[in-house]
Amino acid sequence: MSRFAILLTTCVKPKYCNKSEIRQRKELYLRSIKCWLKNTKLDIYLVDSSNYDFHEINHKRFHVFSFKNRGNNDPHLGKSRGEVNSILKAYDYFKEIWVNNGYKYMVKITGKYYLKGLEDWLSNNDKRRDLWIQHQRRLSVIESIGSIVYNMVNTEIFICKLDKIVEIFKTKYSGNLIVERHMNLIVESGRYKVSRLPPFKNVLKSKQANTGKILKYL
After folding, report:
1. Which of 1, 41, 123, 199 has its CA 20 to 30 A from that of 114?
2. Domain coordinates of the chain in residue numbers?
3. Which numeric CATH code is attached to 4-202?
4. Burial class (CB in 10 A: 0-12, 13-18, 19+), 13
């Protein structure tokens, strides 16, 4: 039995997107979901913060929770500022199922990415950590908050122990920080056992929302 619950985070219909952009976002997400279902044996859980239910896919291993995020929809930040809220709401919604299924960890993945090799790594990993973070670490300039340089931890993928999710993400800062900045503060606090994930291939060549770059590996 897998110890890991896969959670894809999506936002099909942000306020700042037009109809064409929304259609493109939906197609990217659907492409990724289909890859996860076709190429792995993993159950796929998904949370969408724009209340989209992905009715196009009916599969016994696909589980959706959707809600309307009424928080920040700054186009320069994408959905990052609301992603912490999505994670907490998904945990609250799926928690009983995850515990009953014997999951010990949540694997959060941005919904447009399909990562080759992840299933094998999860199957062979028996280490115990509070967090696994993405192998890249970067400095970013966030123009919309004064061009200040902040340390960031990339969060296209990370893994968090289930019994640490609320403690780590439900803080007084969580609603005011984009998730990459929040994660960096958690890592730098020194309170948790943290390891870096190996790189996983970005098979679909999905672009980063904030940079437009295609990372070959996440």
Report:
1. 1
2. 4-202
3. 3.90.550.10
4. middle
